[in-house]
Amino acid sequence: MIPIAHYLILSALLFAIGTAGVIVTRNLIIIFMSIELMLNAANLAIVAFSRQLNLMDGHVYVFLIMAVAAAEAAVGLAIIIAIFRNRESINADRFNLLKR
Amino acid sequence: MLEVLIFYFSALVAIAGAVLMIVQRNPVASVLYLILSLAAQAVLYIQLSALFIGALLIIVYAGAILVLFLFVIMLLNLRGEHFEDKGPRLGRATKYALSVLFFAEFVVIIKELAFTERAGMLAAETAADFGGVEPVAELLYTKYLYPFELTSVLLLVAVVGAVLMAKREKTARQEDI
Fold first, then answer.
1. pLDDT at B115 over 70
2. Of the four, A44, A57, B49, B93, which is 20 to 30 A from A89 by CA?
3. How far apart are CA A63 and CA A33, in angstroms?
């Protein structure tokens, strides 16, 4: 039997890799995928807790989080397309309109 | 023994896929590595007897959301875009250190949660249909009916927003966002 702490550590590790992706990379699409990875890491922890407590409510939460992730992906990719159309780039370093 | 082996193998694949995703330069390869990572996570879900959620992860994430990513990458012509970090070396090191620190913080919290031998173990036995389609759907349509219905509103708003955002405006000026 695998202790739940192992699942939580794995989830934390995936979440940390996701944050590293958001902070380090400058490709907007990869930043966006890192956010999806972070959502999935949280889902993994929820499913593990759900299994530990022997309750299926966690599965419903994960279902709702997936719906939110899908909505977020649709809107985010639309924003990326709009930005690319205007700036011809998806490099996060070049979006400094508010800094100037 | 076998389940421990499956857990560590899937965990390794999930982590490797995630790391390779963020270090890739080619966004298409990046998407494929994320799919690999998600497939490994789906194995873990199924090992946690969350069959429905595991299937959903493959169908919705790998099948729909990441294909959408691929479509967008295909639409945008990214040839000649360079994403090298031109910042100072110290700044780059700080970025990695920050996420390592973040992970360390998580580990401390997980340790502090005091997973004793008994409380830290997964429930030894669950119902035969735990995590199947039917019991999850029953919860979804009874206890969580209103959140579920609100999800449909959220998706509608997202669809309208995405169409509005990505639509090409003929009269608008192209220079400003």
1. no
2. B93
3. 19
